[in-house]
Structures are given as C-alpha cells and as structure tokens.
Amino acid sequence: MKRSSKEALKGEGGREINKASVASITSSAKSAEQNLERLYKTIRNSAKNERGKKLRLEKASAKRERQKLRLKLREKLGEEKIPKEKPRTIESTREFDITVIEDDDQEVQHDEANDEMSTYFNDEIPPKILITTSPYAKVNTFKFCYELQKCIPNADIFTRKGIPLKKVVKQAKSKEYTDLIVVHEDRKIPNGIVLCHLPDGPTAFFKINSLTFTKNLKKKGESTVHYPEIVLNNFNTRLGHTIARMFACLFPQKPMYSGRRVVTFHNQRDYIFFRHHRYEFKREGEKAALLELGPRFTLRLKWLQKGTFDTRYGEYEWVLKRHEMESSRRRFFL
What we know:
Elements: H1 5-8, H2 19-77, H3 106-113, H4 118-121, E1 129-133, H5 139-151, E2 155-158, H6 165-174, E3 179-186, E4 189-197, E5 203-212, E6 229-233, H7 238-248, E7 261-268, E8 271-281, E9 288-292, E10 296-305, E11 316-319, H8 322-325
Parallel strand pairs: 1-2, 1-3, 6-7
Antiparallel strand pairs: 3-4, 4-5, 5-10, 7-8, 8-9, 8-10, 10-11
C-alpha cells in the first residue's frame, strides 16, 4: 500500500521530521567528508614537504663537502690546476649566435670604418643633439627631455607641437644636428624613444621601462657640465655593436675626467639599463663610491631601420617579433 506524505515524514518514534532538518543533516555530512579530504591532503603535503626538506639539506651538505675538498686541493696544488667553478646562469648558457663578434674580426672593423657613423668615430664632426617629443606632449615627457639634456652635452630641446617627424628630420639636417631623439608618450608618461643618427641614419626605436626621475631617487647628486665618460657594456653581436655605436655618437669623444661623470649603457638579456653616476674617491685613494645623478630607466629595442625615419618606405634591418623570436629564454640578440 502507498504511504501518505505525512506518514513518510514520520520517524520510528512517531515524530515528524522536517525537511529543513533533513537538509541540515545532509549538509553536515558533506562538510564532514570535505574536512576529512582536507586532512588527508595536508597529511600528504606535510610528508612531501618533509621529504623535500631532507633532500635540500642533503644537497646543501654535499655541496659544502665538495667546496671543502676543492679548497683543500687548491691549497695543495694551486689555483691554476684547480680553477674556480663558473656559476651556471642564463647568460653563460646562452644559445649559439653566428652574429657574435670576435675582437679581431676584420670584416666588422672594415664595415664600421665605412658606415654612417664613421665620421663621428674619426673625430670629423662634434656631436650636436636635438631632443623633441611626440605632438602636444605633456609635462612628464618634457621633464624627461630636460633630464636627458642634463646627461647629454650639446643637446637642444625643440617643442614640436604638430610638425610631422619627417619635417623635423629635414630641419635638423639643415641646422647640422648629428642626432635626433624623439620621446614618445602614452597616457601622459614617456614610453618610447626614437633615436635617429643624422644625416643618413640608422634609426632605432626603443621602449622605455622603469623610468625614475632624479627627484624620486633616494640618494642623488647634482650634475655638472663636464663631458661624461661612456661605458657600453655587453653589446656582443653585430646588432648590439650598431646600437652601442649609436649611443656613443650622442656624447663627445674626449671626456672631462675632472668631472668624474659616467654614463652607463649596460645590456643584460636584451634590456639596456641606463645609469648616470659620479664617482668619488675615498680618503685612502684605493676605493671609490658612486653617487647617482639620474635619471634611471631601461630600454628595449623594438626595431632598427636603415636611413632616417620613414615608416612607409624605410627598410628595416631588424624587428622584434616576440612570439616568433622569444621562444627560448636563452636566446639574445644584442
């Protein structure tokens, strides 16, 4: 016989069971099961962590023992027979690149002696730099231009307004400027630099990252009018040499050592770090301290073009295609 709904909801003692109480019982059972699962997981993870700790401790102790043995052998036999181990880094495991330049590469020396920048390196023309901005630039972009003018001697700032860049290049050529720097902005913040060597190029575009103005540095000094020393570090390929030579063309060849100013372009994993320092000697005369003068920023090369700026008909020597060219972390282009 079929039971009525009221009879079905009665328990053994004849008491009626509410639907809410049934739901609460089932939910409590589910929560208990979930708590048990979490407990089992924590037990497993704790066991894994303990095993991992043991392995790490064993590796560290084995490494210390190897170091002690090498020190003893080095003391007995000398450092020449047992040299120090080189650390394994991304730079040291860099992929092979045909364009990496050797010191005595005659072909590269011949090309550089006859390229567009040879007049500067032959000391025929002193550098004269024109700095301008994208059309109708905002305050931060002009601040960055003045910071660059502080670093680069013989640099003039030109308020561009709405003049096309090709006309700016022609005007710069007519006034015998040797290089043109155009600072681009996005959302009122500088985000790119076009560097054009005049009169025949080449032209490069860099993305700006991690820009810090001088006033935001913790310990900073005042820049002077002395010509700075230039440090171009770790530009090893043909492309890297071209970029380094473009940076070198911005500064006079004969630095004033009395000012103790240093401008550094350090390439690491295709990111170019710009720093501006003044070094100060300690009383002993053996050590030196660095005082940052600012600004501080990082550049990333996006493309290199032959000749002066021409996006329509210009010939691109190199373009960064991220998804195709950055397939490996150990592949670098500069």
